UniProtKB/TrEMBL annotation:
It comes from Halalkalibacter kiskunsagensis. The lineage of its organism: Bacteria, Bacillati, Bacillota, Bacilli, Bacillales. InterPro entries: ATL_DNA_repair (IPR052520), MethylDNA_cys_MeTrfase_DNA-bd (IPR014048), MethylDNA_cys_MeTrfase_DNAb (IPR036217), WH-like_DNA-bd_sf (IPR036388). Residues 4-60 form the Methylated-DNA-[protein]-cysteine S-methyltransferase DNA binding domain. This is MGMT family protein. Keywords: DNA damage. It comes from the Bacteria.
């Protein structure tokens, strides 16, 4: 599975009522320092895959 596919899968499976940070998603995908890439993936594929973008937050919130 490619890294962007892992990121998409993780985002799709964030439970209702829960949130994850970009860094947490990157860590679970196997690239703990790739939070910015998670942002890019989410931004570019949000409509194509109907991703729950509102469940992904910045770590400072």
């Amino acid at each position: 599975m490619r890294s962007y596919e892992k990121v998409l899968d993780i985002i799709k499976h964030i439970p209702v009522g829960k949130v994850m940070t970009y860094g947490q998603i990157a860590k679970f995908a196997g690239s703990p320092r790739a939070a910015r890439q998670v942002v890019r993936i989410l931004h570019s594929m949000i409509r194509k895959y109907n991703l729950p973008w509102h469940r992904v937050v910045n770590k400072k919130r």
